[in-house]
Amino acid sequence: MNAPARTPSRGAVRREQLSDEVAARLRTEIMTGELRPETFIRLDETAARLGVSITPVREALRTLRGEGMVELEPHRGHRVMPLSRSDIEDIFWLQATIAQELAATAARRITDEQIDELARLNEALAQAVRRRDPELVAQAEFEFHRTFNRAGGRIKLAWFLLHATRYLPPQLFASDGDWGVLAVESHTELIGALRSRDVERVVALTRGQFTDGLARLIAWLEQVGLWS
């Protein structure tokens, strides 16, 4: 008889969550050029900077190593891998490809109640933009797109997109007031296209969001001299 599966302790769950948070922070720093290619991420220094113990930093670096974002060099530590323009373009291409497929399905299957929910979430985003609170803006934007991407019922595909969008640096976009205003306007257009069941328009608006995001991130990385 097989032994019953053990339920993870609260401490283990919290440690895993903390590791994910550290990985997300380091991933964003790499994607925005704050952590430069060829630099080393030191366990003790990073733990002190982020206010955590060494364990979640070590686990986060193991995750990033699996993603090809850092490489472990014996006796030296984890080195940030180069990030090329093609890498950025490939990431956005993958995200946009999945997102457009989900958008087309959502446009055909979404209910009036789900559209009303998107309108409510977009109003929450608009309020966050008016308050100029990047944390609230990033969270409101996330909630809007998570709801939209799941509206067509293709949950597994939405899960893949969720993991692909880990490479988007939300705070970079959310800190830009102009971007926030344009996001609200784009969402308003999207909601209108959903109400009229205009599949082509819904897909085009979705594609445009990723085209804009790519242009903004490339411009930022050029500005900070990542490839100079």
UniProtKB/TrEMBL annotation:
GO terms for molecular function: DNA binding; DNA-binding transcription factor activity. Keywords: DNA-binding, Transcription, Transcription regulation. Residues 16-83 form the HTH gntR-type domain. SUPFAM superfamilies: GntR ligand-binding domain-like, Winged helix' DNA-binding domain. CDD domains: WHTH_GntR. PROSITE patterns: HTH_GNTR. This is DNA-binding GntR family transcriptional regulator. It comes from Mycolicibacterium iranicum.
